[in-house]
Write a structure and sequence with these properties.
This is Transporter substrate-binding domain-containing protein. By secondary structure, this protein is of the alpha/beta class. The protein has ten helices and twelve strands. Strands 5, 6, 7, 10, 11 and 12 form a six-stranded antiparallel β-sheet that branches. It starts with 5 loop residues before the first helix and ends with a helix.
């Protein structure tokens, strides 16, 4: 009988809440699909909603620093310098993976598409055709993004701007003939604003990839495993899929 006396204590240990862990992060400014500080309570941004879902999946896991709103290039510098522990959400690239790590669970998929003026009937079906179009007016793309680097390697002439919203406003004014960006965010800016009757999305998907949680390079493995466990739970129960669909 004595050898079973350890069971109650062991069971209590298993039932105890996980140790509290606080990870530093920030919000990305200029990307309302990811983080919308002025948005309605029901739609605060897809990445912020995923972050909050992680906190619910692991009640001992918390994120600090969300009062800070910084542009993408600053997000990258903070990650590279180890000044934030985790960031929701970033695309992967070989250059980025040299500077920090990524949690293995994909958060949601994005498609590379272009926006054009509604009265522009030209169809662009390949990067080669986009490169030809760009010889007349550079294609607008958000500054410092993986998408900008992809266009540069495909010989597409680009002009980098601060945000997709700014790019679409310039497109509507005729300062460019195309904006290259993520389908989910371009559609949001077009349909939710005054540009709905002026702009349209092209039908061609130039590339498709997933957003991930980026992690500072020297984040402890145990911390990454704990975060990944929470993300796996959200993947299995359909939360990640449901949140992505909510913002499409």
């Amino acid at each position: 009988m004595l050898r079973w006396l350890w069971l109650p204590a062991a069971l209590l240990s298993l039932a105890a809440p996980a140790q509290e862990l606080v990870l530093r992060t920030v919000q990305q400014s200029g990307s309302l699909i990811k983080y919308d500080p002025d948005g309605a309570t029901a739609r605060p941004g897809l990445c912020l909603e995923i972050l909050r879902a992680v906190e619910r999946a692991d009640p001992g896991l918390r994120f600090s620093g969300l009062e800070q709103q910084v542009p993408l290039k600053r997000v990258e510098r903070l990650l590279a310098d180890g000044l934030v522990d985790a960031f929701f959400c970033l695309l992967r690239s070989p250059d980025r993976e040299k500077q920090w790590r990524y949690a293995s669970v994909p958060l949601y998929a994005i498609r590379h598409v272009i926006a054009q003026r509604a009265d522009d009937s030209r169809r662009v079906e390949s990067l080669a055709e986009l490169a030809a179009l760009s010889q007349h007016k550079p294609v607008l793309v958000t500054r410092g993004t993986v998408l900008a680097r992809r266009l540069a390697t495909a010989d597409v002439a680009i002009a980098e701007v601060g945000s997709e919203r700014e790019a679409l406003q310039m497109l509507a004014l005729g300062r460019a003939d195309a904006v290259y960006g993520q389908d989910i965010s371009l559609a949001r800016y077009i349909t939710d604003g005054p540009l709905a009757d002026k702009l349209r999305l092209g039908r061609t998907v130039f590339h498709e990839e997933s957003q991930y949680v980026a992690l500072r390079a020297d984040l402890p493995v145990a911390t990454e495993e704990r975060l990944t466990l929470a993300l796996r739970k959200l993947e299995r129960d359909g939360t990640l899929r449901q949140l992505a669909e909510k913002y499409r």
